[in-house]
Design a protein that fits this description.
The complex is a heterodimer. Chain A is α/β, with parallel strands linked by helices. Chain A has 13 helices and ten strands. In chain B, a hairpin with a 3-residue loop joins strand 2 (47-52) and strand 3. Classes of the chains: A alpha/beta, B mainly beta. The A-B interface holds A 73-76, 79, 81, 98-105, 107-109, 111-112, 115-116, 118-119, 255, 258, 296-297, 317-324, 327-328 and B 7-9, 25-28, 30-31, 38-48, 62-71. Strand 2 (102-104) of chain A pairs antiparallel with strand 4 (67-68) of chain B, so a sheet runs across the interface. The structure holds iron/sulfur cluster (SF4) and zinc ion (2 copies).
């Protein structure tokens, strides 16, 4: 047996080949994200290195993004009855889901924006369960944005939209309405997409994202972890997102919804979810990485804090589209305890 | 006590609703506790409202805006 004289990490791993030691030099010092194989190596780290991994991801986030946390509220302007078949979604009209179709009127939309602004959030995202918007939805969104802008409490909030796949004309219309960021998730690795959605393709989604960027809107694109994808496919997804250079990546964890094909799926284990958060941060050092749906169920209160100290720098506060979050105040208190300032509007202008 | 489970819509006196109770913190009611009809539910950032066509609306404190049937 040879005695190694190579320097080692605190846990005895070889510094020259250990992925966290490599990540420290590559991502933390130089700001270059991990590639697919490196992300996979991170995802395969044993649980006893989770704390070290989260610590590094937090350092990367602090170095390349800073301490501020971007806070967002979301609301569904058109719920349920979607013609698409995304297998995780309680809003697909193709499954026996208890979620019924409903539209939110303009006063309701303004009220949701006010509730969001009252938390100190700088982002308000208007979401619709559609393949893509029709003329009626576009006019509802236009009227909603005008009404939000006319209210003193919400006049300055950044407005984002998530309305499905867009035509080039709709992209231009939304940009002209002042929508600053558009969310359209690729959901999962390209190699896994076909088993999650059959009614449209990964490429169709990517095309909308391309147009959004071209029109000058910020690109928000993430997905859901825990939909039966392999660890290799999680690494693949991280690399595919990194190639897109999104301004924001929302990370959801599957909430198995009654009536959907995934209703009996296991909720992702907390350590696996945290490992994925940290690995995505190491792949995307400068991106806004947002805790989105499912964190309450997957991680609980303690796990949420660990995520905030493990690469996350943005959250959705309050309720989601069809599910409830924990009270916004609980998250705001958490940020205070962690000495993480809420990103202010002036910094986003 | 409710006649029907607001999470799964089955009678509360029959079967096991432990999983429904465990999930209640993460979702608004979906079925009317009096008649088990699927309700019209609107979630907002700080509240929700749920309306049964026969038994009216229930909401948490902030409410969820005005949910209405698609037209
Ligand atoms: S397109 Fe959106 S709303 Fe429609 S089924 Fe898929 S995820 Fe749900
Ligand atoms: Zn039940
Ligand atoms: Zn009823």
């Amino acid at each position: 047996m040879a005695t190694s004289t190579e320097p080692t990490t605190s846990t005895g791993a070889d510094l020259a080949t250990d992925v966290l030691a490599v990540a420290r030099a590559q991502v933390l010092d130089r700001g270059e994200g991990l590639d697919e194989q490196q992300v996979l190596d991170v995802l395969r780290l044993p649980d006893d290195r989770l704390a070290e991994l989260l610590g590094l991801a937090h350092e990367v986030r602090m170095r390349w993004c800073g301490p501020d946390v971007e806070v967002e509220g979301i609301v569904s302007v058109k719920t349920g009855g979607c013609p698409e078949d995304c297998h995780f979604c309680s809003q697909s009209g193709r499954f026996e889901s208890p979620v019924r179709s409903v539209w939110l009127d303009i006063p309701g939309l303004v009220e949701a924006a006010k509730q969001t602004a009252a938390t100190g959030a700088t982002e308000f995202c208007i979401v619709a369960a559609v393949r893509g918007p029709d003329a009626r939805l576009m006019s509802q969104v236009r009227a909603g944005i005008e009404a939000i802008r006319a209210e003193p409490d919400t006049a300055d909030i950044n407005i984002a939209c998530s309305l499905g796949m867009l035509t080039p004309e709709q992209v231009d219309e939304l940009a002209a309405m002042g929508v600053h960021r558009y969310n359209h998730n690729l959901e999962t690795a390209r190699s896994h997409f076909g088993s999650v959605v059959t009614t449209h393709s990964w490429q169709e989604r990517a095309e909308t994202l391309r147009m959004v960027r071209e029109a000058g809107m910020e690109v928000c694109c993430g997905g859901i972890v825990g939909m039966g994808e392999s660890v290799e496919q999680r690494a693949e997804f991280a690399a595919q997102l990194a190639a897109l250079e999104p301004d924001e990546v929302p990370m959801n964890f599957l909430i198995p919804q009654p009536g959907t094909p995934y209703e009996d799926y296991e909720v992702l284990a907390g350590p696996e979810a945290l490992k994925t958060v940290a690995a995505f941060r190491l792949a995307l050092p400068r991106t806004v990485l947002r805790f989105a749906g499912g964190r309450e169920l997957t991680l609980g209160d303690l796990g949420a804090e660990q995520g905030m100290l493990g690469g996350i720098n943005a959250i959705i506060v309050g309720n989601y589209l069809t599910n409830l979050g924990r009270p916004a105040q609980a998250d705001l208190d958490m940020l205070t305890d962690l000495h993480m300032p809420i990103k202010a509007l002036s910094q986003t202008l | 006590m409710d006649t029907y489970c607001t999470r799964c819509g089955r009678p509360t006196g029959e079967g096991d609703h432990a999983a429904c109770r465990a999930r209640a913190a993460y979702g608004p009611p979906r079925y009317c506790p009096e008649c088990a009809r699927r309700m019209i539910v609107q979630v907002s950032p700080s509240g929700w409202s749920a309306r049964c066509s026969a038994h009216g609306e229930v909401a948490d404190e902030a409410g969820g805006g005005t949910a209405r049937e698609p037209v």
